[in-house]
Design goal:
Alpha-Beta Plaits, Rossmann fold, single chain, alpha/beta, 395 residues, WH_DNA-bd_sf, WH-like_DNA-bd_sf, 4 domains, six-stranded mixed sheet
Length: 395
Amino acid sequence: MTIHIAIVGSTTFVETVSHAAPKFDDVRFSHFTYAHPREAADIATQLGSFDGVFFSGSFPYAYASPFLNETIAHHVVQDETVLLTTVLYATLTQKLALDEVTIDVNEPERLHTIFTSFTDLTQPAVMKIHPDVDFSDVFRFHASHQQRDTKLAVTSIERVHRQLLEEGFNSQLMIEPVSTVIRHLEKLIDQVRRHLADLSQFAVVLYASTSASLHEYLRTMRHQGHVEIQDDTILLLTTKGEIVHALEEATLSPRDDDSLIGIGYGTDYKTAFEHARIALSASTEQQLRIVDAAKRLSFPASGETVQYRVTDEIAFDMVKRIGISPLNVGKILGFSKRKHEFTAKDLTDYLGVSRRTTERLIKKLHDGGFVDVIGEEMSYTQGRPRAVYIFKLPS
């Protein structure tokens, strides 16, 4: 599968990437240039479908981010290598002391980290910049200093650099070593590859229904998969990417169908099927349940974030064996870390539920082999003695 990456930056940046980028057999690049970093926002709205977007810096990235939806994006970071390379080049080639230089940077802390290693050096005048900064303020910062006591402006903003030169000031654009640019580009490509590999996982969807209308709906939908009826369920076999898209488009089932749906992801069919079966059997009122390849169970209600995830093997086993909801499993495991032996009242107080609810939970835990009765607690008032339980959880 070919990866399609959009390169967004100034003409100079795009040319640098075009000439220096390694040849990837499975990567295709498209280039988009701007005259002003804020134009990156307009570019983002017109990009269309790309696997990833690579920006020249944090400013165009920040301007474009609100319009990228969920497209993977990365930008060149102004790290210590960039700063040190630029400062060394500027001071050595122009034979200047640091206090004869003005610098604008995204994170002055990185610059100070470099300078603290050289305690005897003078310090440049530094301006912190951010995506909302007025470029005219950055220009005035450099120009005003150079009219008085400095001899060189080092700027991170190409537009400011051009304006300084046009108006007769000495300016040096921040130098991004080609190796730094390529390293960040390769980081984006690796991230895209991992994402695409994740979306190519097996996905099994089990519907708690054998409805002819649901079966026909799934057969005619473009989920790029296989549909069949198995016992009392309808099974859809496809990929995780197809399911993610179907969830986004709300096409996983007809709008008027309220059948329970269990989705399982895995690196092979057997694993995905087992995860789908577990998801379908989970004790919850949510219509849709997902168990991913890492055995995390989630309940992504439409328009809502995932409310709870089971990430612990013990918790996963509880949901699978006795049907306690993940929310209650999490609370019970938290309680077990505080009290190894307990009564129904102890658990009731901790969970903040009714005594009857607690008794039902304890019965499920006992039937599943997660607690044992070890005795009774003597009462000093009238009433039945309280049973004392002990957790039997794997260590």
